[in-house]
Each structure stands twice: as structure tokens, then as C-alpha cells.
Design brief:
Oligomer: heterodimer
Number of helices of chain A: 13
Shape of chain B: rod-shaped
Strand content of chain B: 15-25%
Helix content of chain A: 40-55%
Radius of gyration of chain B: 65 Å
Largest sheet of chain B: 5 strands, antiparallel
Strand order of the largest sheet of chain B: 2-1-5-4-3
Largest sheet of chain A: 6 strands, mixed
Distance between the termini of chain B: 85 Å
Largest interface: A-B, 42 and 41 residues
Strand order of the largest sheet of chain A: 2-1-3-10-4-11
Radius of gyration of chain A: 25 Å
Number of strands of chain B: 17
Number of helices of chain B: 17
Chain lengths: 330, 618
């Protein structure tokens, strides 16, 4: 009897210790798997379409220990950082994504942030009355695809060629001062410079509403980030849509926060969103998901324009350009 | 050896190991953490100095010429996960560029917690980075001044701006912690694995053999010696098992020896003819043998634990209880060893005579009494037959002997003519031997009567003086024959005793005749009467050789005479004193003697003095 009891106790102890062993193994395994992803760093310059991300940051929709927004002065700087491997993604225009891909930086579009339907503009001094009057004038433009796309559209509309105008290349942070100092006669620019120069008397001659779907802002990330930071990417996109909903519901509250980075008065914020379409989750799905997503068509058209403007050299593949897996469920 | 018990070997050993290992792991983990943290700190300090210097240098060179590049430089710092924020601040404390776009053009004094006048003036006075370490926030703050170019034409400005760079190391340290934890987890797992293996090993090689040993020991203690212990296991355990087996073997041998010895003793006791009964001090029967069962007619089971009183007739019970009660206080314990003739009672109520010998024994400090009992019913019957035979024979002998003696007396009296000298001598011989034979027969008959309880005593109050005087007269002729005479001494004043005067005279005559026989010629025999309290003692003292020490014990036994010579010289039956003792006893007196060898002997008897008043009151 005692021997039997003894053996039973032994088995109980063994079972207990084995249990502890198995539990520990599992928990350590889980800890290892659950280990935090490395920091997801997303760069962007100031642009109303991107600012919802900063609204999300201010409202702590994501953990800054997991996701960091790196505030860079320009898209160029963002792409340089991406190339240097200092960041994992950036908020860029689609043409910038394509340029980067052409240069070997295989960026993947994971969300469409905004669609320019008038936000990108040609602002001209009051002396210029119509597009055709641009002939021989100095036009300040960013040496970027958006600039090229806008310029391409403007020149087509004005029935002018590139040789008919003087192009002054400058980054967007110089636009305002260049206009005010009369270094340029017209600017191919966007918000918030649009509002700023409008105050200085500039007139709107052309905007992106005339070329819908041509200028799109996206969130693009490096393939490594898709592999290493999938959760953070999904979280970031989700936060963007939450902030979007906030802005839609209470634009005034959001404007107070948004105005700080835009460096305008809060009441001016809504006007800076004029001409910008902020697609929701549903629109994003229609643009990104499916076997033949709409964005791919836009990209294809854009490639044609950019090649024509000699902004893209050689062939470019659009495979794996889009990944809709991170969009929140409807 | 219950293993659920936390003190069991199979638990303690591996768990002890595990605890030690885990402690070791904790210690190494702590040191790894400490090292990891200090590495992080050291690297951060070096990095922050380098970075702040780099931005400061860039600020001096590019503030006017290429502010874009400068802004790039500042904002890029945020791509370092450690960087909390950085900024370039001009001499008016305005933020020129910062990792946070919204701080641009704002006052650094208002917005940056580590930026204040004291620090700024300190930093501006030297061309080196000022690095602060805020322990509780895990923050590292570096500030460095730069010469602010105010215009392209001024070579050297007196204005100084500040570059601030802040690292937050908590995330980095958290990562170090996780990394250390995961690397140590493997150690913990290995330790647990070893612990499990240890438990198995200890169980298989130590605990199990030990538990077998315990099981065997238990079996042995229950008397099962057939269990042979396995010698498997480590050296120590198998040695123990071997020693245990050997011990068990020895114990087995001893137990067998003891058992056979026990059986031997028990067989003897059970087959002994006499009954043996042991009782404790309370009188309870603790053991009896087979003969006792048979004798008293009780089974062992029914009588064990019962009081011994159950085996004796009522008449003995009080005496037994008293003697048992007083036993511990008694001095003369030798009395026990004597063999007594008493009576027992069987289960069917039959009372029967027994001989009882009692001995006191002590086993393990417990006193008890062993009684050895012999049924003497048969012996008594035989004795009775013998006595009857003697009585019959004596009677039959006496009648013709009386006739013979009468005839011889008549012839000796010469009534039928004078006898010649030769005839007279022969007749005298015949007469003397006839008297002697008659005495013998009378003594035998007396003895027989006494022991059969048929002796009749005619108890009456007599004057002791008269009895003594008559005895002296009767025996004076006999004394003359031995050339001695009686000398009566002591006070006698109408002393009365209640006796049978014939029997008392018989006793006194026996004393006197014995004295005549043994006293030396021409000495006096002193008859002394002494009164003490209410007792009177009559003693007869001779001056003979006395009684030897060896003979003193036997003096009152039947047919006892000092030596064979005596019989011839003095002519006696050897029954006299035995009869005297019985007679005195029956009349309520005491008999006794004192004797010193070579100086003579004194025989005496004592009686309570009879007072007429006391008889009335009685």
C-alpha cells in the first residue's frame, strides 16, 4: 500500500515538474515570438494629406515606442533616408514611389492617403491672367514628379512646350519666399504654400481637379518593413483612418492640432483640405485590393507621363507595387 | 519516506540543484543586464557627443549657405531610435530647426525642459559638448554651442546658438533586458531539464531502493523473514541492502533458536504432572499449565485473568487475601517456600486436598507468584487405609498381650508357688518386655487416634499441683532405677488449668521418664513451675548430654530418637514427644524445649491459667 502510494506521489511530483517545464517552455517560446517588433519609422514632409497621421500621433492612437513619425523637410529627404536605411517607410506621392522604384528602392504602397483634386495648383502673380500668358515667365517648381505631372498638364493645357517657359527648380520650402521676393512669376505648388501665396496676391490658374487620379499620396514602405513590422504598419494605417474619422466628425477640434504643423491658423485648416480627397477604407480597398487594382492603372498612366517628361529612365516593373493586406477590415 | 513530503530525498536533491542553478542564473543575468546597460550608456554618451558636435559644426557652416541641408541634418537624427528630439536654437533662443516641425520659431526656453539660462550660459562659454544624464528618466541630454553666422560678410560673429540633442534610452534598455531574459531562458530550460533527469535518477537509484528497504524492514518487523532484498542500486544503497539481508538472516536464526527453546520449556511445563499456576500481586491468574487445567477442570481461556480465590474453598479465602495483602510488608519470605497441605476446589465444586508450594518470582520488575500444586487425594486415601490397618492390628495385638502380661504377673507374684532363681529371672524378662510391647502398642494407638481425630479429651478444671504431684509419685520409682530424683521448685498457689488431667499426666510422665533416661546418674531432675502474666509454664530440666543441633529439628517427629544406641539403652518407642505435642496442642497449650549440648535439656509446656470468674463470664 505504502509502496503504491509512494509511487503515486512520485508520479504526481514528476507530472507537476514536467508540467512546469512544458509551461515554461511554451511561455518562453511565446515571449520570444511576442517580442516587440523593431521601431517602425515613417518619414514625411508637411502636407495636409499626411497630417492625419500626426493627428493620430497627438491623440496617441499608436504607441510611439513602436511607430515613430520622422519629420523631414521634404520628400527628397525622406527618400534619401529610405535609401540610407534609416527609416522603414514614408508618406510620398505615387510618382515619387515610382521614381524610387526605378532607382532600385522597391517601395510598396500599403495605403492611399489622399487624392489631389485641386490641392496641387499653379499660382501666378496677378499680372498673369491666363495659362497662355505664362510664356517666357519664370515658373518655380519642385524637381519632383508632382511638379512634372502638374507642369506637363499645365503646358498641355496652355499649349506650350517646356522650352517656352523658364523653369526655376526649388524645393517646396523655398516656394513662398521665392514668390514674395519675386524670384519667380508663377509656382507649381501645393498646400500650405497655396494659401500662403494666395494671401500675397497670387492667383490660381490651374489645379489638379482637372487631372483627377494623377496626383496621389500614398504610404509606402520598404519590403523589409512588411516582413519585420507587419503589426505596426497595420496599426499605423488604422490610426490614420481613425484620425480621418475624427477630422470628419469634428473638424474644428482636429484643426487646432493640425494647424501647429501646418503653421497656419486653425480656422484656415479646413480650406487647406479643399481640393484634397481623403479616401476611406472602402475607397482604399477599391484602389488597392483585387486582381487589377485601380491604383495600378494610375501608376501605369503616370509612368507614361513621367517617361515622356524624361523623369523616368528605362523600364520599370509594377510588380508587388501594392499590398492591401494592411488595410483594416470593413 | 513519503515522497510528497518536501523533505524527501527525491524532491530535495533535484530541487536544491534547481534552486542553486536558478540563483546562479539570476546572478549572471543581473551581471549581464548591468553590463548591457552600461554598454548602452557608454555607447550613447559617445554617440551623443559625436552627433551634437556634428550638428554644431554643420550649423556653423551651413546656417546661411544651405539651411535645407541643416534642416535635413536635424530631422534625420530622429531616425535613430534613441533620439527623443533635437533642435538648433539661435542666440535669441528661437528654434530654427527641430525634429518636431511645430516647434519651429518657438521659444526654446518655453518648450524644452532642459534648456534654461544657467545651462545655456555655461554651454556658450566653452567649445565642448555638455552632456547630462537624467537617471530616473533614462535620458541623455547634450547641448553644444556654435557660432551663429549672421551675414555672409561677417567672418566671425559674436552670436552663439545652441544645438540640443536628447536621447531616451529606456527602449534600448528594454530591448537589452528582453535579449538577456531570452538568452537566460535557455539556461533556465536546461536547468529544469537537468532537474527532471536528476529526479528520475535519484528516484531510480536512491529513493526506490530505499523505499524497498523500508518496505522490507516493515515486513521484517511484522515477522516475515522470507523477503530477500534486491541488491540493485548505487554502492551505498546496495551495501545497506546486503547488511540488511545479513541482519535479517541472523535474526531469523536467533528467533528460531528462541522459539525452539521456548517450545522445549513449554512442553516440559505442559507435561509436568503437578499443576503450575502463576498469579500477580492482585491474585489474578496470569498463566496455568495443562495439569492445572485438568486438576481444576477449567479451560485456560476461561480461567486466565480470574482471581485465584476461585480455585480455593471459602474457608481459605480470607487467609489467602490477608496474606497476599500483607505480603509486601512481611519479613520472613522463606515461609512461602514451605509446602503446605491445603484444599482446592474444582469447577464442579468438589473440594480436594492439595500440597501447595509457592515461590515468588520477578520478571522485568513485575512480581508474581508461582504455585506448584499436587493433588494428594489418593495419598490421603492410602494414608487413611494405613492408619486403619495399624489401629486394627494394634487392637488385635493388645488383647492377647494384656492376657499374657496378666498371666506373667501372676506367676511373678509367686501366688502359685515359689520360683527357682532361674525361672524368676526369665519371668522378669518376660514381664519387662511384655510391658514394653504394651507401651508401644498404646503409643501407636494414641498416635493413630490423634491423627484420625478420634482422641477424646475430657477437658475439666484441675489443680495443676495435684497433677504434678501425682506424676512425680508415679515416676519416682522409675527415677530410682536411674539413680536420680526429682526436685520440685517454684511457686504453686492453687493454680487452676482447664485440661484433661489424664493426658496432661501422660505428657508430664513422658517428660519425666525421658529426663530419667537421659540425665547423668546421681543428678537431680528439676521440675520448675513458673507463672508469668496469665500463663503457667511447667518445665523439666535434666543434666544429660543435651540435644544435638542436627536433631533439634526432628525432635517432635514420630519415631525419632537421637541415635540407635538410645533405643537399647533407654528403651522407648520414639513416639512419646510426638504424642505429647499433639496432646498439648489439642488441649490449647504450647510445648517446647531448650537445650545446650553437653549441659542438658529443658522440656516445657504452657497453659493459660484458669480463673473461675472468667469461666463465668464465658
Amino acid at each position: 500500500m505504502k509502496i503504491l502510494g509512494f509511487m503515486k506521489n512520485q508520479q504526481r511530483i514528476l507530472r507537476f515538474i514536467s508540467g512546469v517545464f512544458v509551461c515554461l517552455t511554451i511561455s518562453i517560446f511565446l515571449t520570444a515570438c511576442n517580442q516587440k517588433e523593431s521601431l517602425l519609422r515613417i518619414a514625411s514632409n508637411v502636407w495636409p494629406g499626411y497630417e492625419l497621421m500626426y493627428l493620430a500621433r497627438e491623440r496617441k492612437y499608436f504607441d510611439e515606442k513602436e511607430i515613430r513619425l520622422v519629420e523631414v523637410p521634404s520628400a527628397t529627404a525622406a527618400i534619401q533616408s529610405l535609401a540610407a536605411g534609416n527609416i522603414e517607410g514614408a508618406m510620398l506621392t505615387l510618382d515619387e514611389v515610382l521614381t524610387a522604384r526605378a532607382e532600385g528602392l522597391e517601395l510598396v504602397v500599403v495605403a492611399v492617403l489622399d487624392n489631389s483634386v485641386g490641392a496641387d495648383v499653379l499660382m501666378a502673380s496677378p499680372t498673369i491672367n491666363d495659362l497662355s500668358s505664362l510664356k517666357g515667365k519664370r515658373i518655380g517648381v519642385e524637381k519632383s514628379a508632382v511638379g512634372a505631372v502638374m507642369l506637363d498638364a499645365v503646358l498641355q493645357k496652355a499649349e506650350l512646350s517646356a522650352d517656352d517657359v523658364q523653369l526655376v527648380y526649388m524645393t517646396v520650402n523655398k516656394h513662398k519666399s521665392a514668390y514674395i521676393n519675386k524670384n519667380v512669376d508663377a509656382l507649381v505648388t501645393f498646400e500650405p504654400v497655396k494659401t500662403q501665396v494666395a494671401k500675397a496676391g497670387a492667383k490660381l490658374l490651374f489645379d489638379s481637379s482637372q487631372i483627377p487620379g494623377r496626383i496621389i499620396d500614398v504610404l509606402a514602405v520598404l519590403p523589409e518593413a512588411i516582413k519585420n513590422n507587419p503589426k505596426a504598419i497595420a496599426k499605423l494605417i488604422d490610426s490614420h483612418f481613425k484620425a480621418r474619422a475624427d477630422y470628419m466628425a469634428k473638424p474644428l477640434d482636429a484643426s487646432i492640432i493640425l494647424s501647429k504643423r501646418l503653421q497656419i491658423n486653425p480656422e484656415e485648416v479646413p480650406s487647406s483640405y479643399e481640393g484634397i480627397e481623403l479616401p476611406g477604407v472602402k475607397e482604399n480597398k477599391s484602389m488597392l485590393a483585387g486582381t487589377n487594382p485601380l491604383l495600378k492603372n494610375s501608376a501605369q498612366e503616370l509612368v507614361t507621363v513621367m517617361q515622356r517628361a524624361k523623369l523616368l529612365q528605362g523600364d520599370i516593373t509594377l510588380d508587388h507595387l501594392i499590398d492591401s493586406a494592411f488595410l483594416p477590415k470593413l | 519516506m513519503n515522497s510528497i513530503h518536501p523533505r524527501s530525498l527525491s524532491f530535495l536533491l533535484p530541487v536544491g540543484f534547481a534552486v542553486i542553478m536558478l540563483l546562479l542564473i539570476v546572478v549572471t543575468m543581473t551581471s549581464a543586464l548591468y553590463q548591457g546597460y552600461s554598454e548602452v550608456n557608454e555607447k550613447a554618451k559617445a554617440d551623443i557627443k559625436r552627433e551634437v558636435a556634428k550638428i554644431s559644426r554643420a550649423s556653423e557652416r551651413f546656417l546661411l549657405t544651405d539651411p535645407d541641408l541643416l534642416e535635413d541634418e536635424v530631422t534625420q537624427t530622429r531616425s535613430d531610435p534613441r533620439v527623443s528630439f533635437s533642435a538648433i536654437i539661435n542666440h535669441k533662443d528661437e528654434v530654427l530647426f527641430s525634429t518636431n516641425f511645430q516647434w519651429r520659431n518657438m521659444s526654446a526656453l518655453d518648450n524644452f525642459p532642459y534648456y534654461n539660462f544657467d545651462v545655456v550660459s555655461k554651454v556658450k562659454n566653452k567649445k565642448r559638448a555638455n552632456v547630462q544624464w537624467i537617471e530616473d528618466k533614462n535620458e541623455l541630454i547634450a547641448l553644444m554651442s556654435f557660432t551663429e553666422a549672421s551675414s555672409k560678410h561677417v567672418i566671425r560673429s559674436q552670436f552663439k546658438g545652441i544645438v540640443i540633442l536628447v536621447y531616451n534610452l529606456s527602449e534600448t534598455k528594454e530591448k537589452v533586458f528582453t535579449r538577456v531574459l531570452i538568452s537566460r531562458s535557455i539556461d533556465i530550460l536546461v536547468t529544469l531539464l537537468i532537474t527532471l533527469i536528476l529526479i528520475f535518477l535519484v528516484r531510480a537509484y536512491v529513493t526506490k531502493p530505499l523505499s524497498n528497504l523500508q518496505y522490507a524492514a516493515k515486513k521484517y518487523s511484522e515477522g516475515n523473514f522470507s523477503h530477500e532484498l534486491s541488491l540493485k542500486g548505487p554502492e551505498e544503497v546496495s551495501e545497506l541492502a546486503r547488511a540488511f539481508n545479513k541482519m535479517a538472516e541472523q535474526v531469523d536464526v536467533y528467533v528460531n533458536k528462541i522459539e525452539s527453546k521456548n517450545l522445549h520449556t513449554r512442553t516440559i511445563l505442559e507435561n509436568i504432572v503437578d499443576a503450575i499456576i502463576a498469579i500477580n500481586l492482585k491474585g489474578e491468574i496470569t498463566s496455568i499449565n495443562f495439569a492445572a487445567e485438568e486438576m481444576f477442570g477449567y479451560s485456560r481461556e476461561s480461567i486466565l485473568g480470574k482471581n485465584i480465590l476461585q480455585l480455593m474453598p471459602d474457608s481459605y479465602k480470607t487467609a489467602h487475601s490477608n496474606s497476599l495483602k500483607n505480603y509486601p510488608n512481611r519479613n520472613n519470605k522463606n515461609e512461602l517456600k514451605k509446602i503446605h497441605e491445603v484444599e482446592g476446589i474444582r469447577s464442579n465444586g468438589e473440594v480436594f486436598p492439595i500440597e501447595l508450594g509457592i515461590n515468588e518470582i520477578e520478571i522485568d520488575g513485575t512480581k508474581s507468584f508461582i504455585g506448584i500444586i499436587r493433588d494428594i487425594t489418593e495419598k490421603k486415601k492410602v494414608e487413611l487405609l494405613k492408619n486403619e490397618f495399624i489401629s486394627t492390628v494394634s487392637h488385635e495385638l493388645r488383647t492377647p498381650l494384656t492376657a499374657l502380661n496378666g498371666a506373667v504377673s501372676l506367676i511373678a507374684s509367686a501366688k502359685f508357688g515359689e520360683l527357682n532363681e532361674k525361672s524368676e529371672m526369665l519371668i522378669q524378662t518376660a514381664q519387662r518386655n511384655g510391658d514394653r510391647l504394651l507401651n508401644l502398642i498404646n503409643d501407636l494407638l494414641d498416635m493413630e487416634k490423634i491423627s484420625a481425630g478420634k482422641m477424646h479429651f475430657n477437658m475439666e478444671v484441675h489443680n495443676l499441683q495435684t497433677i504434678i504431684d501425682e506424676s512425680l509419685i508415679i515416676n519416682s520409682a522409675y527415677a530410682k532405677r536411674f539413680n536420680t530424683k526429682f526436685n520440685k521448685q517454684g511457686e504453686i498457689n492453687q493454680l487452676l488449668v482447664k485440661v484433661d488431667n489424664q493426658r496432661l499426666e501422660q505428657v508430664l510422665s513422658n517428660f519425666l521418664s525421658n529426663s530419667c533416661k537421659f540425665t547423668k546418674p546421681d543428678t537431680e531432675i528439676i521440675v520448675f513451675i513458673d507463672k508469668k502474666d496469665n500463663i503457667v509454664r511447667v518445665s523439666v530440666t535434666d543434666h544429660g548430654d543435651g540435644i544435638s543441633e542436627a536433631f533439634k529439628e526432628k525432635i517432635f517427629q514420630k519415631f525419632s530418637q537421637a541415635d540407635s544406641d538410645d533405643n537399647r539403652r533407654t528403651g522407648g518407642t520414639g513416639l512419646g514427644l510426638a504424642i505429647s505435642r499433639e496432646l498439648i496442642k489439642h488441649m490449647g497449650g504450647q510445648i517446647g524445649f531448650e537445650s545446650t549440648e553437653g549441659q542438658g535439656s529443658t522440656f516445657y509446656f504452657e497453659f493459660p491459667i484458669y480463673f473461675p470468674e472468667s469461666s463465668k463470664s464465658n
